[in-house]
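Collaborator request, handled under Task 6.
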Amino acid sequence: MSAEPRQIQRWQLIAVLALPPLFWAGNFIVARAARDLVPPLSLVYGRWLIALVVLAPFAWHHVKRDYAGYLRHPWLVLGTSATSVVAFNTLIYWGLHYTQATNGMLLNSTIPVLVMLIGALAFGQRLRLWQGVGLILSLLGVCIVILGGEIARLADLAFNKGDLMIFGAMVAWALYTLWLTRIPAEISRIGLLAVQIVIGLAILTPFWVWDLAQGHLPVMVPQAAWAVAFVGIVPSLGAFLLYMQAVRLAGSGRASQSIHLIPLYGVILSSLFLGEHLHPYHLAGFVLILGGIILAARAGRAARG
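Structure tokens returned to the collaborator:
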């Protein structure tokens, strides 16, 4: 009788660790596939509007309870809203108009090293020697991906602008992560997410209206509607809620490591649905990025020990 609950728990653990990166990889795939149907700002705006409608009934009592907490940390709430809901998603969807989804998901793996780098430069966090070495390795991997494996492009500053936009999105997410840790843990993250979406939509609204006035209109076909619905529900809410469960069941360390499944899923999905191909420079960049992250993480654990 006791074996069955343990078996269920083990499969639950596998599910909550494996599904969020799959859903986030799907975000890149769908955004790339729908780039000619839904302009970036419309995709971002539609995504978060749908997410807010679905989330609001569950978040409302948390928002009422934590309202005073938001007022005590207005700049942190505003900063996390601007970097996550607005900058991160807009830059990704914009960048995917100019680069492969595979590149975007590889660059996604740079978030841990960017958190370390920005934490050291702007937040006074200590960066140890081997963490610095790991950071350099990872940034070298980023350069290989952005340059498409052609070092000669460096001399001509011939970067892929889509890759640069997505790398900018990762910088925004690193800032979001660092600011988020400064918001007290007793403030519900579900309620906070709803507030961040409301603020993000308020920031996005004038830009979205201006974009529509410029003639950047979604193509009114079922595929466009399905794309917006998917990114509004699956990566925005499904992945987020499952990831919170992963942190509860497996701890923040194991849960965060599962994010590195995104490029693995991405390569498979990109090949199946987008016809993209994995090149040697993709593999070299990923090995350097992941190797740098592992080196830096081990150095950090050794220092704490």
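The cover message to the collaborator said: "Confidence is low (pLDDT under 50) at residues 1-8. Residues 62 and 189 are 9 Å apart (CA to CA). Please let us know whether this matches your experimental observations."
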